[in-house]
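Worked example (supplementary).
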Amino acid sequence: MTTLANTGQSGQVQPQPAQAAPFLRQVGAQFKAELLLTSRRGENILVTLILPVILLVFFASLKIIPVSTGSVINFLLPGILALAIMASGMVHLGISTAYERYYGVLKRLGATPLPRSGLIAAKIAAVLLLEVLQVVLLVGIALLFYGWRPVGSPGLAILVLALGTITFAALGLAMAGSLRAETTLAVANGLYLLFLLIGGGILPLDHLPAPLAALAQYLPAAAFTQSLQAALTAGAPFPGTALLTLLIWMILILAIAIRTFRWE
Amino acid sequence: MMSAHAQTTGQMADLAASPEGAEAAIVVDRFCKSYNGRRVVDELSFSVRRGEVFALLGPNGAGKTTTVETLEGYRRPDGGNVRVLGLDPIRDATRLKPLIGVMLQQDGLYPMLRPREVLRLFAGYYRQPQPIDQLLERVGIDPGTKTICRRLSGGQKRRLALALALVGNPQLLFLDEPTAGMDPQARLATWEIIRDLKAQGVTILLTTHLMDEAERLADRVAIIDHGRLIALDTPDRLTGVDSATMVRFVAPAGLDCRALAALPGVQRAEEVRPGSYLLETAPQSMPAVLADLTAWLRDRGITLTELRVGHGSLEELFLRLTGSEMRE
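After joint prediction of all chains, the assembly is encoded as:
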């Protein structure tokens, strides 16, 4: 470094101040770093891309899923998509943000010109890109190998995917911003396993014991999964109750995340 | 607390309007901060001039980091007021952040990114950042290294954190224990960078519990203990003349120490090594003792080769002011 741009010959600081980059350029730089970070952590790829593919292929091939109506893939695909979205938002975003907080990265970013909204925008964009990859991968496999054909309402499906993304990303951030990193790691993985078992995405809820099924009905995972299943099933009734349940969870979790998130 | 805040806000406005206030890079005015009812900073006031290197010196827990992090906008004062480059660190954060460079105690590096990747990211926040490869070389990190930050040594992480603080061409740098964890060589190199920055007109507020760091780098040193300012001056004046009780001089060996001890005001005279003498006196007698000493030597045709007055270290001063050793 030879001279500082904002320093004059006299050694006195000139009135022309150093400037922040335009908002979108800052978000772009952050977005690139977020993608680099995602790609560099093998466990992210495992839990967000490989695991959902394994679940889909495994259960679609084994034909052990007790489906009452329609084909196995028509039942499985929405459930696995929902699980993939949960992995991106709750597990991946939650755990990586928790460790960024633990390592003081979030605090350090607070002293840069990058606004908090810019950081959140970059993280959302990175999660959305990851979700696009997940959807393409899972839908592609279903189309190519299991004869799945798109039915139902794509508009409703996209709405449900958006609501689910917000709900589970907010859940991950709520944990990341208030719990210790190790706790977030454990809870996010624990919830993921729980939602895999009683979310209704792989095992239909009506095959669970009645009290458990009744409880599971009110959890965000089942609400999300059932809404998506209805959206991707021909002639299914509008999933009013499930969608409302998901919406309530979304508002509740968002409010908690916003109120409790600590950057340090 | 609220009324005290409102009161000082009014006075701050007056201060900012005065030439002295406008000139100051940092103004801290009766700043108070408590955590869980425990007061960690107590009515702290000081100001830092533009272009100055200012050191906050004190043991851990003295309130240095709380003060710096309030100036950086991380904490809200419970009482009193702070101004940074004429701005409120919280209310005017958007205007202030591009102007400052920050090195926190915790480096805050992305563990999975390489040094160049982190620096490139931070460069992306500024309109005209420093060229990143040159900056990395300047802090002594190989720009081509594939080592991720998690695997860097403590000193390397610290140096990368310094580069992150510099990449946006800040007018004002906050360095919280900048050389903690560095080996002596890296510490010297970092001091050199800080001196260069000062030469370029950058204002620097640094905290340290290293006496020699404060002594060598700072134009002025504020000594803080238990959240209170206990001394504020140039390192020379803090350690030197006003409080001087020692005269050290070098002259031919074998001078008559009993005759030296008999000079008015001299309490003790000793030849500590052959040709190296130490006189002890009270601070108020120092000017007279110096005159008498040189006259005594002139009368005997003796030439001094070295004369040093009262240069105790900051460490000794700290001990005297607080009555305790500097806690690490």
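Two points are worth noting when inspecting this output. Residues 1-15 of chain A have pLDDT under 50 and may be disordered. The CA atoms of residues 9 and 112 of chain A lie 27 Å apart.
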